[in-house]
Amino acid sequence: MEIKDKIIYEREKIVANEYLQRLVSRIKEVESVATMGDWICANTTDIKRGSKFSFEKYPFQKAIADDMHPSVCVKKLSQVGLSEISYRKMIGFLAQNNGTAGLYTYPDLVMKSNQVSTRVKPILDTDFPQKRDEIRNNNVMQVNSSFMYFSANTESAATSTAIDYIINDEYDLSDQEFLALVNSRIQGSQHKIKHGMSTPTFTGYGISLEYESSDKREYFYKCEHCGHWQVPLYNRDFVYVPNLPDSVVDFRTDINEGIAASLDYANSYVMCEKCHKPIRELSNGERREWVAEFPDRYTHGYWVRPFSSSMLDLRYLMMTMADFIKKDKIRRGVNTVLGEEYSDSSSRLEKSSIMACMKDERIPDVGSQVPVFIGIDMGLTCHIVLSTDKRHAFAFLTCPPDKILDKVKELSKQYNIVCGAIDRYPYTPTSNEIRDWSEGKIFPIVYGGDKNVDPVKELTGNVSYYKVNRTNALDYVMQGINSGHLILEGYGIYQNVVVEHLRDMFRDDSSPEKQPVWVKIRGNDHFFHALSYSFAAYDILTSENYFNGLGSRDERCCLFIDGQEKKSLYNTNILDYTSSHGHIIKRW
């Protein structure tokens, strides 16, 4: 057979073989779809419009959709369609890589349930109709021979599934320890893809921390008039508003409801920072480009801002931010409407406020008769704070956990420690040992409960430990520092460490139905807790619950607090003393 005839013969064999036909068709399809964004447009439907999906509304999404790098983070404002893109990216990955598994995480069960049923399922039902025996529910959805899992932060089941591709939605609203645990599920995969996105909260936390260590991509715009490349921002350099009051320095905080209602929006516009001419084509993808500040860094980071598209006009931005100001929720407005971090003294302690309370690095001589309260935060390094009352902390110390009992004994010889609070976890036997050695002066404590301090009793009736309301305890420290009433001394070489620890949590009051909660940023917050524990010890000593005779050695004492006498059996051995702050504890 001649070569020409052989080629024709082989071609006819391929045409006659339906399986080979499918393979050839698939190869052509893959070759024609160059990127994940192209695949999304070619294979998924815009459910609302009933037509093929496109990036026409938000051109900036295309680069994010295309990016299948193993490590991607997106810092963004709310409602810019990135969850929609992320669902389609994961479906595309699973459809193109048979036998793989993806995990999509949410901050809570409610968001998971709503999003899976109303947004993910319609996409799959429309573009990948369910086949017989395929699994599809709110926990897992099958795509051919691949599986897409869904998990809220409260679900431990997610940690038992091997994953190839994980997307963490609303990174900052999620439990950071959970994210660290669940993200480890990709380590056995050959793909190992981890993507996260969120509105930011604070600098150095969550998505902000991820973005700061990334290549930091911004969506630049080339001015149609002068050719200047820039990233349009929500401030005076880029926004022209006729007759804008001179009092408006910061657009985020200074445009209140009265000002916002009086502005001339018809003649306001976003402008070039160089030639000051109007920018009319914010959504023109031909004039925009994602540019990395640090292109050599491994993680790809994107920052989506209000002017990354034309969807948010100035009237909406200013009126919406004014409403957040009116409701005293500026931080939430800056985070969600502008996609920026924001901090004020009501949500995170400022360095200047802390430094103003720091009076002397040396430990003062408080004497052997003045009552002293001790707070101990347990960990790989124990952090200790001594105070004379809830206004004056005079020593900041550290020691290894295996030396903490010896350290407490040493301090008890030097100071008149009348009450203390020590972390019950993670070294419960050690905290119990210190409680027993001190004969009930120093109690183990755990955060929890509604009361400032609340005893938890053993079956014998003795107090085993105290529950302390975490929010109230940490709030008191913040209030003392912000008001300038708290005196901090004796920090020695730990001055910078104390400042760092006091700034390593933020107060989240975003939920109107729940008590505000303090959230860790990096986990270096030990002196913050030790300080609050020392103040909790004062509350324990002065609480009615303390005077109930539990474990008492039948020593009757009289306690005067701010001029009022409290009498009961007292379960510690206390020396007579007179406090310089007017508190007297003496024997009957």
Primary descriptors:
588 residues, alpha/beta, Rossmann fold, 4 domains, ten-stranded mixed beta sheet, 32% helix, globular, disordered C terminus
How does this structure look, described?
There is one protein chain. The protein has 588 residues and is α/β, with parallel strands linked by helices. The protein folds into four domains: 1-32, no CATH class; 35-212, P-loop containing nucleotide triphosphate hydrolases (Rossmann fold); 223-290 and 312-337, no CATH class; 359-587, Nucleotidyltransferase, domain 5. Strands 3, 4, 5, 6, 7, 8, 9, 10, 13 and 14 form a ten-stranded mixed beta sheet that branches. Helix 5 (82-96) crosses helix 6 (109-127). The longest helix is centred in the first third of the chain and has 19 residues, at 109-127. The chain is globular and about 85 Å long.
| Anisotropy-based shape | globular
Terminal-residue CA separation: 120 Å
Number of strands: 29
Q: What is the fold-level CATH name, i.e. the topology of the largest domain?
A: Nucleotidyltransferase, domain 5
Task: Please specify the SSE layout and strand pairing.
Layout: H1 3-16, H2 18-32, H3 36-43, E1 45-46, E2 51-52, H4 61-66, E3 71-75, H5 82-96, E4 101-106, H6 109-127, E5 140-143, E6 146-152, E7 165-169, H7 176-183, E8 193-198, H8 206-212, E9 217-222, E10 229-230, E11 239-240, H9 251-254, H10 257-262, E12 269-270, E13 288-292, E14 300-303, H11 314-326, H12 330-337, H13 351-357, E15 358-360, E16 371-377, E17 382-389, E18 392-399, H14 404-414, E19 416-423, H15 428-437, E20 442-447, E21 453-457, E22 463-468, H16 470-483, E23 487-489, H17 495-502, E24 505-508, E25 517-520, H18 526-542, E26 555-561, E27 564-570, E28 577-578, E29 584-587
Helix pairs in contact: 3-5, 5-6, 11-12, 16-18
